[in-house]
Amino acid sequence: MTAAAPGRGPADGGPPASAAERAAATIRPDIQALSAYAVGHADDGIKLDAMENPYGLPDEVRDAIAAAARATALNRYPAAHHDALQAAVRAAFGVPDAAALLFGNGSDELISLIVQACCDAGDTVLSPVPSFVMFEMSARFHHARFVGVPLTPNFELDLPAMLAAIRAHRPKVVFLAVPNNPTGGRWTDAAIDAILAAAPGLVVIDEAYQPFADGTWMPRAATLPNAVVLRTVSKIGLAGLRFGYLAGPAPWITEIDKLRPPYNVDVLTEAVMLAVLRHKAVLDEQAARLRDSRDGLARALAALPGVIVYPSSANFLLARFSGKMSGNAVHQALKTRKIRVRNFPGGEPALADCLRISLGTPDEHAALLTALHDILA
Ligand code: PMP
Hints:
It is built from 13 helices and twelve strands. The protein is α/β, with parallel strands linked by helices. It has two domains: about 45-55 and about 280-375, Aspartate Aminotransferase, domain 1; about 70-280, Aspartate Aminotransferase, domain 2 (3-Layer(aba) Sandwich). The protein has a seven-stranded mixed β-sheet with strand order 2-8-7-6-5-3-4, with helices on both faces. It has a three-stranded antiparallel β-sheet with strand order 9-10-12, with helices on one face. A two-stranded parallel sheet has the order 1-11. The site of 4'-deoxy-4'-aminopyridoxal-5'-phosphate (PMP) has 12 residues, from α5. 4'-deoxy-4'-aminopyridoxal-5'-phosphate (PMP) binds near residues 132, 181, 208 and 234.
């Protein structure tokens, strides 16, 4: 890269000189105004901030992964259709034969492709708020308008408000995280049916946390005319792999697929997914263990002074700290004890003083509760 020609600069109509000036003059102003998605990372301590499965894979599964990686031809591009993985995902996760299936580099990528496929500049993306932040971010990235419909003060879906907003804004895309992140609640089937009936465009039923909940929309993925079901393997033990899938009627999936980068799911991801899905029972057992631990942790947290815990159908609990310390102070005090949970500084006002705590191992729950007793004493 050469610098701007001597004697020329912004003042005399030439290009700005430095990389910072050139980027500022070229990158979209709305992108410059954004902050990057915050990814928490910690190599030590107790990590309860990102809804990861705390249990590692057993040796037999690791050995199967190693063998699969060894047999993978890294010199070749991934195949176009991932036929074997399509069959394995359908069988493992109950995707109906009649539904079309699309794979993503995490479900994040699929959220972005959906918005790109549906929205012209200025079109509306709508979801309850607070919900998964990437719904709004993806809308912004693609010049769509985001309408957030506040949940009730108890973080329940405000169905009349949702239906009124859908009538008023005619959204191209409605995102429903079911169960919802970061609040944990699962909207009723009747409420979702009412939204499906009212929505003029596509409704995305994002079941990232379904493995920890009762019920799923997957059996209806082929038959609803305006809905698709989004899933990820991130919460059940494979967050590092980056693999998500979208199931729905072929007329929707075929169009969204046109925007997919051709090699978005790489050969190692495919090989590892195939190997792990042969041991899917391990993932199911870990998810069940986490789910079984949820009520006990919720009761123990709710017994702390000034703490409210919201009902959760996910692998995390949202708790509000209204005692002598603010949520941010509790977050900081936990951090100094190397216990990471998620706070929401400066974000959604409804989440003030709330901390989102991912389910961990029994030992991690015990350490968290000991620390909180100490902090809140
Ligand atoms: N949907 C929801 C509701 C989420 O909470 C998340 C992760 N926080 C995702 C999708 C994205 O998951 P991933 O990209 O890891 O598949």
